[in-house]
Amino acid sequence: MINNTKELTLGGGCIRTLIDIKENVIDYDIFFSEEYGNIANIFNKFLEIGFEVKWACPNGDLYNLSNGTEKIQLILPKTILSPEKWIEKFDIFAGCCAINNNILYMSKEAIRDIKQKRITINKVSYPVATFFRINKYMKKGYQIHHEDVRLFFLSVISLINSSGDSWAKYAID
Asked: What distance in Å separates the CA atoms of residue 33 and residue 7, rounded to the nearest whole number?
């Protein structure tokens, strides 16, 4: 379904396992464009094969599904994004990879970090999610350099300072 559909992009850790073949796929992140149409059809297909919705973003941007052993995130953007633009938004470089329409998209930094088992901060938009992702990667044997720890905290401080009273919105995963 995903490989031949330009409106769907498979990204993140499941693609990372193409380079780090010793690592197991934990979840699948599927990114949609607005062109895809009615998400209800996709939900129904997943429900028919035993998945259920575990969490839904109140804004309708993100849905977590599970069948008990596999996890899927369905991500719906407010604007249409290319695979290159999607991976630019990822928080750590080791996850900056995607497949869309049978084309692999991966940054040089992602390849470097996957091979070296290194955590390098790309962009922090949701600090709590990034914090948990860093911990998840460390459990897989990745290491983070003290400069990236510093960059993470500076990014968090910058987000808090620029948000005024609404800083809590950055805690949403």
From this structure: 5
The tokens describing 73, both together, are 């995130």
Percent of the chain with pLDDT over 70: 84
133-173 confidence digits (pLDDT tens): 999 999 999 999 999 999 999 998 888 888 776 656 555 54
Q: Compute the C-alpha angle 39/71/77, nearest 5°.
A: 40
Q: Which of 129, 124, 83 is nearest to 106 (CA)?
A: 83
Write the CA distances from 46 to 52, 80, 136, integer angstroms. Answer: 7, 23, 26
Architecture (CATH level 2) of domain 8-171 = 2-Layer Sandwich (3.30)
pTM given for the model? 0.79
Tell me the two tokens of residue 143.
């290491």
Stretch 27-52: mean pLDDT: 78
Instruction: Centre a 10 Å sphere on the Cβ of residue 153 and count the other Cβ atoms it contains.
Output: 12
